[in-house]
Amino acid sequence: MKRLLKAGTAALALIAVAAPVFAAEPESCKTVRMAEPGWNDLAFTTGVGLTLLKALGYEAESQLLGIDVIYTSLKSEDLDVFLGYWDPAMVAYYKPYKEDGSVETVRTNLEGAKYTFAVPTYVWEAGVRDFSDLQRFADKFERKLYGIEPGSNQLMLDAIKDPALGLEEWEVVESSEQGMLSEVVRRTRKKSFIVFQGWAPHPMNTVFDMKYLTGGDKFYGPNFGAATVSTQVRKGYLQECPNVAKLLNNLVFDVGYENRGMSYIMNDGMEPEEAALKSLKDEPKRLETWLAGVSTFDGKAGLAAVKAAIGL
């Protein structure tokens, strides 16, 4: 009997060692405040973050804000998490906050992105293949560059200020991502000239027959503005909320996954969290990586809780 009791005790000890041990998150961490600037890629990835956090028992929320406001809000501790730092497109925005340490970069969450001027293929075939070609066709372009929402077009504005390009008299038309894309649709139907802000991941790359322009390295970086996207937080957040920090360190996307998720928003009319939920159900294996070592807010196993919450 003693031998059986010892064996049973040993077995229980092994189970205790093997089972993951989670600690509940501090109460101050229950509300997770996020933001995104209205770009569909960031709306989708933020939707994924919100869906996971809510399934884990957090009260996650997101605001639609300009990039400059996102950074000032992170610095003032009115926001906690931003999943959309595009490097190099946002280097100038982030620079003062990096220097004073008020905003911290957690990790790269997307590689293989790009961001620079784009034109329809028929414009490219007409001879507009480089930034330096734009001025020669100024009249056809009506001396306009089409950007997205105000506060997100600084690199485009920098380009028209560069004397080497001869674009000083050009105008940057700022509206929104959807407004810009609607103008691309309108002009491509008439085969008229347009130059606009293009990037990947984005369904525009399959919806439109388009080309990216060379010659923008000075503004967007090499290889057509080859970019990474990173997760950022307010200073000290990772230490204050270690369970959310673990999730943020695990949360990595790829261009194909984002393209599919963005298509649900743009082509199927889904809300970001609705698109996120569909994407999670389409590819549930991703949860195993994203939730490794992550608990619910009250300290239970995260993977099982999320699967139950989203109906897997």
From TrEMBL:
Coiled coil regions in record: none
Signal peptide start-end: 1-23
Superkingdom per UniProt: Bacteria
Keywords: Signal
Domain ABC-type glycine betaine transport system substrate-binding: 30-278
Name by which UniProt lists this protein: Choline ABC transporter substrate-binding protein
